[in-house]
Amino acid sequence: MRKVWPWLAVVWVFFTTIHCHAQAFVSGSVYALPDSTPLPGVALYIASANVYTETDAKGSFQFPATLHPAFKFQIYKTGYVSQLLENSVPSANWKIYLKPNVNDLEELVIYGNQEELKSGTANNIDVIGTDKMRELGALNLSDGMAKLPGVSQLNTGPGISKPVIRGLNGNRIQTVLFGIRFDNQQWQDEHGLGLSDVGIDRVEILKGPSTLFYGSEAMGGVINIIGEKPAKMNSTESSLSSRYFSNTNGYAVDAGVKKSRANSYLILRAGYESHGDYSDGDNKRILNSRFGGQMFKASYGWRRKNWQSENTYLFGLNHFGFLMDAYQLYDKADARWSRSFERPHHTVLLNLFTSKNSFEFKSSKLQVNAGVHFNNRQEQEGSAGISLNMLLNTYALALTWSKSFNTRNELSIGSQHQWQTNENIGSRIIVPDATLGESALFTYVKRKSKHAVSEVGLRYDLKRIDTRLTGSLNTASGFNPGKNIIPVNRLYQTLNACAGISVFDSKHWNVKANLSSGYRAPNLAELSSNGLHEGSVRYELGNVDLKTEQNICMDAYVSYTNAWLSLYADAYINRFYNYIYLQATNREYIGFTIYDYKQQNALLSGVEGGLKIHPGQVKNLQLNSVYSSIVGQTDDHHYLPFIPAQKINSECKVYMNARGKWQNAFFSVVHQYVFAQGMVSEFENRTEAYQLVNLSAGAERRFKRVNVKLSSSLNNALNESYYDHLSRFKYFGIYNIGRNLGIHLTLQFI
After folding, report:
1. Which residues pair with 256 in a beta bridge?
2. Which residues, 6+ apart, have CB-to-CB distance to 165 below 8 Å?
3. Bridge partners of 358?
4. Contact assessment for residue 464 and residue 488, using Cβ atoms and an 8 Å cutoff
5. Longest pairwise C-alpha distance within the chain
6. Per-residue pLDDT tens for 423-476?
7. What is the β-pairing status of strands 740-749 and 37-38?
8. Cβ 598 vs Cβ 540: under 8 Å
């Protein structure tokens, strides 16, 4: 990093000294109904061009006049009905009117190459911003996403975790980072997502198969991670954020600077975090649950006539301590708040570069996204050196051409390609050296009317997996239980489709119905495993004859919103064909039961529902409650593993009137009730019901040259001792994290 900073300084000086040509601007104003008073602090955002600004104290704003008419403008402010304006860049003064509605803040969401309000797509999409995650005291990105209904996290302590969407995780969930697919070898239960929230604006969760636009491994949903917005147009902004967590004596800090001009912008941000071992509800320290890391992100974007380009580089280096197995003992514990990683741990190094490009024509658009990702995963398992050391290199390219025939009909045709190489350079091997390649063609048609949007699409995929003979695949000398694990040269091909409709009125209702399919090829572990895995007491054997796993999901959604009430209900049935799972055998090796990978049809079904009330008599009070439930079984009536328990999240939030210079103050109490989970697979433990109480509060204050945001959270306020059903520590008799006080301070320099 010391070698990087001088170059960054050169880039920054060059950027800030670029000659600024005279620009023509479109001016406008935003007014609040019903009295048409000027409305300050309204955000105006064009996601496809990454142009952002806000209205000033008089409700006025400016945008470059060179913006293409096809751009979609999102206009939003808390407490008002959001708008999405298309084909409406005027040549004269622009007047926009927003209706007040405290229960309606409909975000702009991104589905493939589509930018729509949530009601404008048949897909079920939830959004959570980084500010909200930090306000709630999330320890990492997966923890923050788990605050959403239907989303949980599979974890091995607070550091190692990955999202679970409607009972599916790992290679059944695709992660998209800054426009390209992100893969860091998550096929193991104990391999987490490992991403920081630094430099991220929000996360959009697409629930259900999303193969049409995203391809392989999007059969359970997509995690779309979107980078932070640029500075307001023609301005320079800088910020410093710090967080503290009492349970782990952990801290995190990040700082950034960003500059925007009419046709270009630059963002630089760096962060660091460090956590000691956590304590459970009995105040018992969980040795070697520590984690920490560092990251750096740089983004540069520009517009040249009809070409918009957004280019991002991300560096990350993270360490995660873990328990080797159920019998791990230490003769001597280190210091309570030690950050040493001399004990068993993962080290994950990532270097990612993405380039998102959009070419706007008279009535069509071409999007070209490309990226490279170099991921190095290492494991130190208690010996002097590194035992597991894998290099995964990914090269991705996606092209989508969209044609608007009129204001109602749109056609998209796309092609996606990915090439990966996996290489082992350590002494221990758990998956073989391999090359993986895939290509796809798809077409998608959307039709809009005044009160409905219908969507239909078709996609064809080819995926090639070639594994090579690699050492002994972690098998001791002598008898080899994996003697049938041979190199694989396999071509998988699938056809997938989707069809859906969203019907809405201009005031209250939104009804959605969606039918979609997805697929994934077996991963390297499922094909070629031959050995023990840390954190388990299983000897796992792959199956080179595994077939493509496919699913078909039916989803129905309905919501109702008025000035003081918002409610929704969602039900889905997800049918799997050739579902891949582990099954115990009656064979053993060196005292460990051998597990084989099998396939069988399976069914997941579930419901979600929520209610939000903003009493008209008490304007500063908001009440909401969300329920979710999932059941998963194979056709021979065995329960699927890692299915979240039923849960109810209820919140009472009070917004306080401004006092002096403090603004946007709030206080929140969240009660989470999680039901007992007795529907478990053969190698899972049952878990009992538990309930948690979480508190949070915050406010903002604007000074002459700095805006201060301060919030605090107290999670598990009653210090409950409990096992979450998706915690892998439950097998060791280890409880989840106890009481944790978090403090978050952000300084935004004006």
Report:
1. 239, 269
2. 150, 151, 173, 205, 207, 220, 221, 223
3. 308, 367
4. no
5. 84
6. 999 888 888 899 999 999 999 999 999 899 999 999 999 999 999 988 766 444
7. unpaired
8. no
Structure tokens at 742: 């978090």
Distance CA 313, CA 378 (A): 22
Residue 723 CA to residue 733 CA, distance in Å, equals: 8
Backbone CA torsion sign across 124, 456, 183, 311: negative
Q: Which two tokens stand for residue 438?
A: 């895939």
Q: What is d(CA 737, CA 503) in angstroms, rounded to the nearest whole number?
A: 43
Residues sharing a CB contact under 8 Å with residue 540, sequence separation 6 or more, in sequence order = 525, 529, 530, 531, 532, 533, 582, 594, 595, 597
CA distance from start to end of the chain = 28
CB-based contact 263:64 (threshold 8 Å):
yes
DSSP character at residue 12: H
Residues 142/159, Cβ–Cβ less than 8 Å: no
d(CA 555, CA 349): 38
The Cα 112–Cα 174 span in angstroms is 13
Going by their DSSP bridges, the two strands 94-98 and 25-32 should be labelled as parallel
Amino acid at 175: T
Buried b / exposed e over 727-744, threshold 16 CB at 10 Å, is bbbbbeebbbbbbbebeb
3-state SS string over 127-172? EEEHHHHHHCCCCCHHHHHCCCCCEEEEEECCCEEEEEECCECHHH
Query: Which regions of 195-276 does DSSP assign to beta strands (E)?
Result: 200-207, 221-227, 235-245, 250-261, 264-275
Which H or E run includes 696?
Answer: strand 690-702
Is the torsion defined by CA of 497, 71, 98, 147 positive or negative?
Answer: positive
- Average pLDDT of the chain? 86
Query: The pTM is what?
Result: 0.90
Q: Can you tell me whether residue 7 is helix, strand or coil? A: helix
pLDDT, position 473: 60
What's the pLDDT score for residue 245?
97
